[in-house]
Write a structure and sequence with these properties.
Number of helices: 22
Structural class: mainly alpha
Order of helices and strands: HHHHHHHHHHHHHHHHHHEHHHEHEE
Strand order of the largest sheet: 1-2-4-3
Shape: globular
Oligomer: single chain
Number of strands: 4
Strand content: under 5%
Distance between the termini: 94 Å
Largest sheet: 4 strands, mixed
Length: about 525
């Protein structure tokens, strides 16, 4: 007994434990520097960054939540709710503090913390240093197309935390009482982003899976009917937690419009099937690796938390927006899968490669320990960054003047002309724009009223179908102009709309750039 105790004490202070801490800190710093130095502009690629920030600004200025549209002219006054209001307020507060620099800084900071934590979990389960770095690289690659300053980013974080908690409970590394954190997380998440529905689905199907394991006498977290009740109450509480928003049941109407629309995939990239997009192929290495590991492991033992990433993978094939959710749920499950996977054991036995073997002195118990060094480092970096940005210190990486909207994506060169037109025109002047520019104009030229933006729940299928018809037959624009009397237009160079305005009588191109052309009505 004394020998066993001594071995346990030595393993808890083993070099591998210290190496795990250094690995997590290295992943955090590496990820942060990689994206700050090489990909910071990519975080401002989506129109939602601008639109959500503008909505948050209005909420902070007026002290109330919007309940009707005030950005477009075709739908002005129509019922609309800011379903992501909490995320929008946070974005507006960050922008007020330090502009786009702070928004991107916080986004990269949070993602760096997430992937450092996931890497530490993987390493503590027994993967070698090299294989841990390889797997976390695959996870990042499968998710990076959604690294955008949007409330959607919070859903990646929430899904990772929810999945980890469920798996810790299922593997008996955490008690059933910890499930009470779930309805709290869902209540917050519901005010940030609609992907909370996926979180509730994960919780619900996990509960059903646990019930199946209990009723069939298989190993699982539930060993008695008392345990069933203890788990069922907090998990069931996640459903009413969805209603813990200022909009109540109206949220479901908005979510339903988005989920059920057949036209969104034609207009919004993130709603398209994964393999129809170049970035979708970056998901396949992780998908193949996880599938091979999980098939053998699930034959050894049925664990709901190991199977659920496969559900998200199937959903990702239908809509690429689910790929980051698959990636983080896979990263959460990988540590356990690696230890029992038949495929991993076969690779080890067949090829005798050290990389695929479980390290000696693997830590027992929870996979979530050893993050103190990285947390301290992260807090120090956060404090320094916020001090520099709050003081408007012009400095690379941590200061201001480091991030701006990419000029090849947004018509920054045309923006002074748009601003000049906005100042001359009456408040609420209607302008035509392509869908992609709606959020950008709402932020950069708030006095104008746009034609459309990417709020598909506002335009609904009828409005979206009209827009799709206009893309196919731009001559429809002349009818729109007679109906709405718009005085200017912002188009993508070379698009069908751009070609029409270039040739239409009475329209004159005032300014152009690689990202957008600005036309004004001058008959």
């Amino acid at each position: 007994m004394e020998i066993q105790i001594q071995i346990h004490k030595e393993s808890s202070c083993s070099p591998s434990n210290g190496a795990g801490r250094l690995l997590a800190a290295g992943v955090f710093i590496g990820f942060f520097l990689l994206f700050q130095l090489g990909a910071r502009q990519n975080f401002l690629q989506d129109p939602g960054t601008f639109f959500h920030t503008r909505v948050g600004q209005l909420i902070l200025e007026e002290g109330q939540l919007p309940r009707q549209d005030r950005f477009t002219f075709p739908y002005q006054g129509q019922r609309w709710i800011a379903q992501q209001w909490l995320g929008e307020v946070i974005l507006a507060a960050l922008y007020k503090f330090g502009g786009f620099d702070t928004q991107v800084f916080i986004a990269i900071f949070l993602l760096a913390c997430l992937y450092a934590w996931l890497a530490l979990r993987i390493y503590r389960a027994g993967m070698t240093f090299l294989l841990t770095l390889l797997m976390i690289t695959l996870v990042v690659a499968a998710s990076s197309h959604h690294f955008l300053v949007r409330p959607l980013l919070a859903s990646i974080l929430f899904q990772a935390l929810v999945s980890a908690l469920l798996l810790e409970v299922e593997r008996c590394r955490a008690g059933l009482a910890c499930l009470w954190f779930l309805p709290i997380a869902i209540a917050i998440w519901a005010n940030v982003h609609g992907a909370v529905l996926g979180g509730v689905m994960t919780i619900g199907l996990t509960g059903i899976g646990w019930g199946f394991l209990f009723l069939t006498g298989r190993p699982g977290p539930l060993s008695s009917w008392r345990g069933v009740r203890t788990a069922a109450i907090p998990m069931a509480a996640c459903i009413p937690a969805l209603l813990a928003t200022p909009y109540g049941l109206d949220m479901f109407d908005a979510w339903g419009e988005i989920v059920n629309s057949p036209l969104i995939g034609q207009l919004i990239v993130e709603h398209r099937p994964m393999l129809t997009l170049p970035q979708g192929w970056a998901v396949l290495p992780l998908a193949v690796s996880f599938t091979l590991l999980s098939i053998g492991a699930l034959r050894e033992r049925l664990v709901v938390g190991w199977a659920f990433p496969l559900v998200w993978l199937l959903l990702a094939f239908t809509k690429i927006r689910h790929a980051p959710i698959f990636a983080v749920t896979a990263a959460v499950a990988l540590p356990d899968l690696f230890q029992v996977s038949r495929f991993r054991k076969w690779l080890d036995e067949r090829w005798q490669i050290e990389t695929f073997r479980i390290r000696a002195n693997v830590m027992k118990g929870s996979l979530n320990g050893g993050f103190g060094l990285t947390a301290a480092l992260a807090m120090l970096l956060l404090l320094i960054g916020l001090v520099f940005q709050g003081s408007d210190v012009n400095l690379p990486i941590l200061g201001t003047g480091w991030v701006s909207p990419p000029a090849d994506r947004w018509p920054e060169a045309v923006r002074p002309v748009i601003f000049s037109f906005s100042e001359r025109a009456p408040d609420g002047t209607p302008i035509f724009n392509e869908l992609f520019f709606g959020g950008y104009l709402a932020f950069q030229a708030p006095r104008l009223r746009t034609f459309i933006d990417d709020r598909c729940e506002l335009a609904k299928d009828r409005g979206l179908s009209d827009y799709v018809r206009g893309m196919a037959d731009p001559e429809i624009i002349s009818g729109w102009q007679k109906k709405y009397c718009f005085k200017a237009a912002l188009t993508k160079p070379g698009s069908p709309f751009d070609v029409w305005f270039s040739k239409a009588v009475g329209w004159e191109m005032i300014a152009s750039s690689t990202a957008g052309n600005w036309f004004e009505w001058r008959p």
